[in-house]
Acetyl-hydrolase (Decorospora gaudefroyi), 488 residues
Amino acid sequence: MESSPSALLKLLLPKTPMLLKTALRHTLSMSPTSSTWDLRTEITINILRDMMGPGSTPTPISKLQRLTCKDTGVKGKVWVSKVKSDVPQEDDVRQLLFKAINDMGTGAEQWTKPEQRPLEAEWQGYRADAKDNEPEPTGLSEKEKYDNLMKETKSKVTLLYFHGGAMYLLDPATYRNLGIKIAKETGGRVFNVRYRLSPQGPFPSALLDCFTAYLSLLSPPPGAYHDPVPANEIVFGGDSAGGTCCSALLQLLLQIHRSTPAGQTPTVRFHGKEVEIPLPAGIAMTSPWLDITRGLPSIESGVKYDYLPPPSQTDQREFPHDEAWPTNPPRADLYCEGSALMHPLVSPLAAKDWSSAPPLFFSVGQEMLRDEDAVLAQRAVAQGVTVVWREFEAMPHCFAMLLEGLPAGAVHHEEYGKFCKEVVEGKRLGNSGVFIKAKSLKREDVDVARGLTEIRDEEVEGYMRKGQDRIEAKFRRGVDSSSERPML
C-alpha cells in the first residue's frame, strides 16, 4: 500500500478533528482506555476504527486484494527464498481431505472440490548483518538464498506459518517482518505458505494448500531445497485467519489419525512416495479466528479494546460489486457456503474432540475473538491437551503486529518464541495461564482449566447457530454478506 509522506498526509488531513479530539480526551483521562493505552495506541486504534467503521466508504474485494497483496520486495534483516512446487501426480491428498470433510460433517453442507495447485511459499530466516531497510543481495538464486538462510539458522525450529487477512488478504511485507522476529526469537526458520485466497478459492482450497505444505516439509517434492523435516521439529503458526488454518489443519490431522486403525500411523501417497502423517510438535496461535460465524458474545462486548467492526455495524454495510464478489452463483460467505459455516474444518470451534493434540499456545488480547479462543483453550485442557495461554490486558486483535514498539508486543514475541523452542526441544510443558497487565506488564496467573470463560460447551453451538442464521438471513435479503467479514 502506498505509504509516502504525501499519501499519509492525504489520508490523515481529513481526520485532523478526530485526531485532536482523541489526543485531548486521552490527555485529560476522559477516554475509557486512557488508563491502559498510551497516546500512540489510542490514536492508531481510532484511525483504524474510523477507516473501517460505519462512516467509511466500502472498498471492493478485488481492490483490497490488489492494494494489500502487492509485493514491494525483500528488505531488512531477513533471508527469503521463494518456493513453488509442482502438483503431485497422485490425487491421494485431495481424496484424503475430501473424505475427512464428509466424515466430519452432517451431510447437509455444500462445498466445491478444489483442484490441487502448485504450492507457493517462502522460506524466511534471520539475516543478522543486514540493515533494517537493506535490499536483499542481487544475483543470488533462490537456492543460494536458502543456503545463506540455513547458515544463520541456529535451532531445529521450523515454523509452518499461515498468514492472517480474513482469508482474502495478504501483505507480504508484514509477514516478512514477522518472519524476522520469529526467526530471531527461535533461532529457527519460517515456512510461510501462500494459500489460496477467498472468495476466488473457497473452502477447502486453503486447507488443501496448508495440508500440502505440511506434507512438503515432511517429504520434500522434487526440486525442493530442504531436507525432510521431522514432525517433532515443526510447529504450526498463524495469526487471525492463519489461526483458522492452524486449528483446521490440526483437526484434519486428528481426524485422519482417528480414522486409522489403532497402533498404526496414517500415510498418504505424495509425489511417488508413501508418506507418514504424524502430528507436529505444537501449535502457536496469535488471536486465532476459530468461529467464522462470529457468534460468541465478545464479538460485540469486546469492541472497547478492538478496532474490528462488529456485526451490529457491518450488518448495515454493503460492499461494491466487482469481478470477485459476489460469486457466480452467489454464496452467503466469502470463505464458504452458508451451509458449511459450522463444519469443524471451517469453524474449528465447532470441533468437539481435541484429545491427542500437541501443546497449544494462545496469545490474545481482550479483543472481539477472545471468547472463542478461551472456549477452545478450556475445552482442550479438559481433554488432556497442554495449553499455554497468554492474555494481554486491553490489547486489540493481533496487537503485536499492529503496534510496533509496544512493550507488550515484545513480551508476546518472547513468549511465542519460547513456546516454539520448548516444544521442539521436547521439553515437557504443563498447563500455563498468564494475564499480562497493559502498562506495568505485571503477570497474574490464570487457571486454564476453569478460569478462562464461563461459557459452557453446550452453549457454544447455540451462539454459532445464531451467527450462521444472521449471515444467511442477510444473504437472503440480498445484502452483500462480505460486510460480515472484518479484516482479521
User: Anything to note?
Assistant: The chain has a mean pLDDT of 92. The CA atoms of residues 81 and 144 lie 8 Å apart. The radius of gyration is 22 Å.
